[in-house]
User: Fold this.
Amino acid sequence: MSIDVGGTFTDLMVDEPGRAATMFKSPTTYPDPIGGILGAIELAAQARGVGVEALLGETEILFHSTTRAINAVITGNAARTALLATEGHPDILLIREGGRTDPFNYRVPYPAPYIPRALTFEVPGRIWADGRVHKPLDEAAVLAIIAELKAKKVEAVAVALIWSIVNPAHEERVAELLEEHLPGVPYTLSHRLNPTVREYRRTSSCAIDASLKPIMSDYLRTLKARLEGRGLKGQIFAVTSQGGLVDVADLAERPILALNSGPAMAPVAGRFFAEAEGARTAIVTDAGGTTYDVSLVREGALPWTRETWLGPVYQGNLTGFPSVDVKSVGAGGGSIARVDAAGLLHVGPESAGSTPGPVCYGRGGTRPTVTDAAVVLGYIDPAFFLGGQMSLGREAAREAIAREVAGPLGIGVEEAALSVLDLATESMVHAIEDITVKQGIDPEETAMIGGGGAAGINAVLIARRLRCDTVIFPDVGAALSAAGAMMSELTTEFARTAFMKTTAFDRDKANAIIAELAAQAQGFFAKAGPHARDKRIDFSIEGRYPSQVWEIDVPLRGDGFASEADVAALIADFHARHTELFSFRDDGDAIEIMSWRALARCRLSDPTLIRLAQEGAVADSTRRPMYFRETGLTEAPAYRLEHMAEGEEITGPAIVDSNFTTIVVNPGARAVRRPGGHLVVRSAA
Assistant:
């Protein structure tokens, strides 16, 4: 079972051996998202003709992703957190790493640190870069600081001391004092969380993680208790922003991994469906009710970034963790359309969400959205929304667009609805261009994955603007992130900072470090449970040329250095990787290895078996009025995706409906049902 809590809908996928997967959607509930989760589970139980307790009792594994962590940071609702820094270094979060998006704009205010100076405390004591103790830890000063933390009612503590990654003794002792004199208050030690040599990144990640521990621990504890109270006996795994899975107990210890967890799963699923069509490079889109998420799978590899900012670049806060690179814009099915005082149309980023939702939902919404426009144009069948779970008010949507858009612009209602759709399309095209054209990728040479419940409304229009001919709509696309969690791997990374030059390479020391990391990985596999399969450990180093500021990641070919030939292979791989990234190499220079890493991963399910039920080929297309710019109002056929035969081809204008999405096949486009259950649309007019 996989659950993805989105801004508008909570998606649920249920998969069990010998049966086709099933998909359900329930409105996300605020402020308690667990209500929406239980609502989706109740729908699944009803479909199986059993009670919630029986369904959860049979569930062995539950995957879960949530926006709880990112929302807490963005809205400023994270815990009241203190930072304990080395004496003389209280400004790490303020100084940052430098950088400005516009170096000539001095009107931009300097960003405030994630933890204010009023809650930043200097700890006397100092470790040298080689691990020697330069100045002993002043425990009396630490106790005085803890007394201040009590007085200021601090809810969490981040401990980030200089060079703790080389010698963690001072951080470990501070932890012991916190546990003894400030019991019940969670804390994060920087050397345990993010053992990187980058001081700001290590401190920033430590601060963010600590601030999330109270809210995420409470949420995960409540989630586990309420699900177990309804009968769940299986394991709960949480989705991470790194495109993997961790046990919920591990997430409670490192809640920073939950940031952007849901969107990170879309590229995982998108890669699978792109490869099914022979596409190695794919634009993966996930169009929900609130946001439009885009990512680029290049040569079969997930997109990674170490520059993950919460908020604007250089103005927000750097997480300090690598993550799947997903860009989001405020353009989804719930994006609100409005005309400003100057007579200009705007769509988004404000969203109607699930409450009150679009006007056509009939829940009190008064401002028209992209979904309302699609209903007015005849693309969405008001009687078949969410497979008939909801009926939509077409006349209410039409009146709202007439009042808020068509009237102020002086145009017809259908033309106004098309304009809303066109403007949303333009925002989505710009988001895709940022990850393709601006990175030297020609969209014409890629395939596009249409994921998310709102993807099919304008995916063909987006593809045409980008000159991308192939659009793939997975049968599980309406819950692409939830499906991605099922296809993903259980992962965690272990790291060790240890400086070593290749000109003085110590094979024994290197092998000892790798053996230590391998032992930690095996411990991780033991905790994964009996369903773990395809276990794998990938080793890598972070290295650089002398005098360089930034390191690059280079994978190791094996799990150790048996001979000098293995060392030579690492050196050759570093030079090749440097050439690939920066177009030059320096074969005569030494390589400085800064840290060693092990990525442990295993699978909990077989992605090839995750398919929705096929209801059998039935020639049951109907016709209904639709409005296209090329044709005006026309009677066009509407097909059911579940009833289409493998290899069946249709030509636009047409609609392909499924229980959870609507795919618009614009005039001139062609669509065909593939054996894998997905629909492939050729967008060329």
Q: What stands out?
A: The first helix runs from residue 33 to 48. The radius of gyration is 27 Å.
